[in-house]
Design brief:
Elements (H helix, E strand, L loop, with lengths): L11 H28 L11 E5 L13 E3 L4 E12 L4 E11 L7 E6 L12 E4 L4 E4 L6 E6 L13 E10 L11 E10 L3 E10 L10 E5 L1 H6 L6 E3 L5 E4 L8 E6 L10 E9 L2
Antiparallel strand pairs: 1-3, 2-5, 3-4, 4-9, 5-8, 6-9, 7-8, 10-11, 11-16, 12-15, 13-16, 14-15
Length: about 280
């Protein structure tokens, strides 16, 4: 039987085929959008176990003296600096991410400066790597020991008041702040550990007071006289087994007072703490 149409309308079978074709086309468009979003490049995140320290940074060019990251010119503001730190026992890894803006309504040139003389860089001038966007990089600029990172007109990476730029930099070959520069950043406390006729121990805990957010070394006094007095029969030896510390003078049964100095593995930061035990023995 021949198909019948009314008022110029296509037969029912042809209408169904057209609707099916339209549905397939729509599904292909949606799939294309989803695929595009799924494959769009994203910024890689740091995946190392880390401690993030949020630090306020001045956005004024005139008040950034002494900061580890500062604006590089009068039109640049630096804010929302986040620090990520890891202690790998032999070295310290530090990363920062900073937001850069300018006062301009349209993108203009900007610059920031890493001052390597400041913590957490502590004078290290090599080993830095830029994460994410590849902005212009200049060592020893504007002076020795400083690193300038910038963007602007020629590289189409300017910044404005409403179009910020994010700068991220890492260095995994750092060392803690010297103990001599962190004397006011911690407190110490001691207590008895094992306390017998043949073994008497002093447990010392060094605790940061929160004033220094970056890893720092420390030095603490250890008085072993109470432990020596506790022993029956005199002291044969004084030891601190398996601790990443340096003792001055070297531990022995002939001396009762010592200074324990941290190494990289025993450095602390912020309000973190490190405890160690020194024992006197009678054999």
């Amino acid at each position: 039987m021949n198909s019948v149409t009314t008022a110029g309308r296509p037969p029912g079978r042809e209408r169904r085929l057209r609707r099916l074709s339209g549905l397939v086309a729509l599904l292909l468009v949606v799939a294309g959008v989803v695929a595009t979003r799924a494959t769009a490049p994203t910024s890689a995140a740091w995946t190392d176990p880390a401690v993030v320290v949020a630090m306020a940074s001045s956005t004024s060019w005139t008040s950034t003296t002494g900061n580890p990251v500062v604006p590089g010119n009068s039109s640049t503001s630096v804010s929302n600096i986040a620090w990520t730190q890891n202690n790998y026992t032999s070295s310290i890894s530090v990363c920062f991410s900073a937001q850069v803006t300018t006062a301009s309504a349209t993108p203009v040139a900007w610059a920031i400066v890493i001052d390597t003389s400041q913590p957490p860089w502590n004078g290290v001038t090599t080993g830095y790597s830029q994460q994410g966007d590849g902005y212009s990089w200049a060592d020893n600029t504007p002076s020795a020991g400083k690193i300038q990172i910038s963007g602007g007109y020629t590289d189409n990476m300017g910044a404005s008041a409403t179009q910020p730029r994010t700068v991220s930099v890492c260095n995994s070959s750092l060392q803690p702040i010297a103990a001599s520069k962190a004397t006011a950043a911690f407190t110490t406390a001691s207590e008895h550990g094992t306390w017998t006729d043949s073994q008497a121990c002093i447990v010392t805990t060094v605790t940061g007071n929160g004033s220094q957010p970056f890893y720092f070394n420390w030095a603490a006094s250890v008085d072993m006289q109470p432990a020596i007095a506790r022993l029956v029969g005199g002291v044969s030896q004084i030891r601190a087994d398996g601790v990443p510390l340096a003792f001055s003078p070297a531990l022995s049964g002939a001396v009762s007072s010592y200074t324990a100095s941290s190494q990289t593995a025993s450095a602390i930061k912020g309000s973190s703490a490190y405890s160690f035990t020194v024992c006197a023995y009678h054999y």
